[in-house]
Amino acid sequence: MSENVGRWLRDEIENSILSNEFSPGERLDETVLATRFGVSRTPVREALMQLDAIGLIEIRPRRGAVVIDPGPHRVYEMFEVMAELEGLAGSLAARRLDKTSREAITATHGRCEQSAAAGDSDAYYYDNEEFHKAIYAAGRSDFLEQQCLQLHRRLRPYRRLQLRVRNRLSTSFLEHCAIVDAIFAGDGDEARRLLRGHVGIQGERFSDLVASMAAR
Amino acid sequence: MSENVGRWLRDEIENSILSNEFSPGERLDETVLATRFGVSRTPVREALMQLDAIGLIEIRPRRGAVVIDPGPHRVYEMFEVMAELEGLAGSLAARRLDKTSREAITATHGRCEQSAAAGDSDAYYYDNEEFHKAIYAAGRSDFLEQQCLQLHRRLRPYRRLQLRVRNRLSTSFLEHCAIVDAIFAGDGDEARRLLRGHVGIQGERFSDLVASMAAR
DNA sequence: AATGCTATTCTTGTATACACGATTGTTGAC
DNA sequence: GTCAACAATCGTGTATACAAGAATAGCATT
Q1: Is residue B78 located within the same domain as residue B95?
Q2: Which of A55-64, B139-148, B175-184, B202-211 is the least confident region?
Q3: Closest Cα of chain A to B5: distance in Å?
Q4: Which residue, of A31, A49, A67, is where some domain finishes?
């Protein structure tokens, strides 16, 4: 548990939302949450205020908090922005790559290769996250890294669904290879272009997303 | 005043921070704020939690809240991300431009022209904001627009300082012209490139920024 | 039977009280 | 004279109490 209950509750409720334990549109009753977690309403309210500020829930004055339902279109928009940010991170990584970052990327890339070869989509899901985080870090921009991590976290559930799509695992890894090549070659523009394509959702992948979201 | 005190306080304190009434690094005492605004500590705490979630202040457990000092380097990183997001907005605007957005851009661009011609940097500061907001809206991505507005708001104080730099007003307007041309021509890539250059801080403009920040 | 009004209940919003950890100032020892 | 330890004080963290608005159910009226 974190050092104060409010923060702990924020993480706890955030996880519950991101893992779909609280469904979009669901009402979050302060008293219910308080008794459920065995605390008073005060830290619950503080947690909810923070989640509202982040944009995960909406607090309608005097009418309680509900989990925001982004909807397919909004999720698409979020991937669009994510693609742009990752593109920037990639281009910065290509320009600023140092030994530590290079090793981190190589290591996580290697783990992705193993999971992909094994066809283990759960393992790949995790390794893929680490790979992308390594790129954020390699960009050497704290603010950008922070923004990327936040959006990445928020898109996590949808990303997971997407990996279930046929062949996505192997194509994803092939894209990773090209991205690594571009970054290691110091080609920022190419890294940016590839990452935009890798993260963004174009063409049929949008219908895949919609279908997987509807399936929940 | 907003419908509930917490939200009102959040806006109030946020404005105070962004207008430099609360300096970076300054301690925000809950009791002091409560008495100052004539309310109890409860809504003050809720406001602070939200500002912490947004990233404007940092709440160190049991040690109170302090206004975050981004420092020149972090501000540079923020402008870098802003440039990327505006670039995306511009490219989307070029592709999706409709009559309403076109008129909004034309109108705000016209107002910028007048302020620039008059050499009125305060008026230009305001008109420039509206011009950029018109581009965000033209992109037709609610999420992107939201992100742009949030970051724009956070960078507002630094943007203002920058306009004071010699000749910045006229060069800024010339850049606007090229951006408008690209968007109206439907050239998304060019709009993106120009906006990245317009918003980002390269070369000597970084030292201008540092100097203006130090001057406060 | 359906609809509108009113009263009750339930939930949120704010204030206050209390407890615990951090900070600071003072005193004593080396 | 400086440093350390302890005590007092101050501020944060959580709980609870109270007030006010929103939802709901029941009753009356058409």
Answers
A1: yes
A2: B202-211
A3: 10
A4: A67
Q: Does pLDDT of B63 surpass 70?
A: yes
Q: Do A206 and A105 reside in the same domain of the chain?
A: yes
Nucleotide nearest to A59 (CA to C1'): C12
| pLDDT value, residue B216 | 64
Same domain, A31 and A80: no
CA-only gyration radius of chain B, Å: 19
Instruction: Give me the CA B75–C1' D20 separation in Å, rounded.
Output: 44
Give the residue on B whose Cα is nearest the Cα of A2: B61
Residue A27 and residue A66 in contact, taking contact as beta carbons nearer than 8 Å: yes
A45: containing domain: 5-67
Mind listing the pLDDT tens digit for each residue in B171-187? 999 999 999 999 999 99
Secondary structure class of A123 (helix, strand, coil): helix
State whether A49 and A100 are in the same domain. Answer: no
C1' nearest to CA of B40: which nucleotide? C15
Q: Cβ(B92)–Cβ(B141) under 8 Å? A: yes
**A78/B143 touch (CB, cutoff 8 Å), yes or no:** yes
Any bridge partners for residue B60, and if so which? B64
| Pairing of the two strands B64-67 and B27-28 | antiparallel
Choose one of B23, B45, B67: the last residue of a domain: B67
Question: Domain total for chain B?
Answer: 2
Does the pLDDT value for residue B22 go beyond 90? yes
pLDDT digits (tens, 9 = 90+) for B153-175: 999 988 888 777 778 899 999 99
Residue of chain A whose alpha carbon sits nearest to that of B42:
A42
Tell me the pLDDT band of A2, cut-offs 50, 70 and 90: low
Question: Are A61 and B141 an interchain contact pair (Cβ–Cβ within 8 Å)?
Answer: no
Where do runs of H (alpha helix) occur along chain B?
5-18, 30-37, 41-54, 71-96, 99-118, 121-138, 142-163, 168-184, 188-199, 204-214
Q: Decide: A106 and A195 in contact? Cβ < 8 Å.
A: no
What are the structure tokens assigned to A22, written together?
A: 């609280």
What CATH number did the domain enclosing A32 receive? 1.10.10.10
Distances (CA, A) of A19 to A15, A129, A154, B7, B92: 6, 16, 10, 28, 31
